[in-house]
What we know:
Blueprint (H helix, E strand, L loop, with lengths): L10 E8 L5 E8 L5 E7 L6 E3 L5 E3 L2 H11 L7 H17 L4 E3 H15 L1 H11 L5 H14 L1
Parallel strand pairs: 4-6
Antiparallel strand pairs: 1-2, 2-3, 4-5
Amino acid sequence: MRCPYCNFGESKVIDTRPNEENEIIRRRRECLSCMRRFTTYETIERIPLLVIKKDGSRQTFDRNKVLTSLLRACDKRTISLQEQEQMVDQIEQKLQNDLAREVPSRAIGAMVMEQLKQRDQVAYVRFASVYRQFTDVSDFVDELRDLINEK
């Protein structure tokens, strides 16, 4: 780390503190040449994840879009906001751990549906109705029949 004052290449760390979320580390340093102090911040470099939409276009992954769709599906249900955020965290972590830098939107939708299916079947059907673009009541009946047969 180069000193911002004298451009010397070596410094010593005096103090290290993580932020509240443990995502950023603040380091207080002292230059070994001019003895002046400066602060650096260390973060994890995340490779951007691209989502391939149905029309073939690409967008960067936005966890808020996933959370918003979960909020709609779980409206007036027993799944807390904290649980929904944990679901989004799990999905995002799984996507980051995969080697692919591009993921189809249908794969993200399938992950959301799997999470909802385990927690709340009404929220699952709500999400599925939008995700799978149900056009009439028979689509709902078919999905409910599949859920009943799984039990």
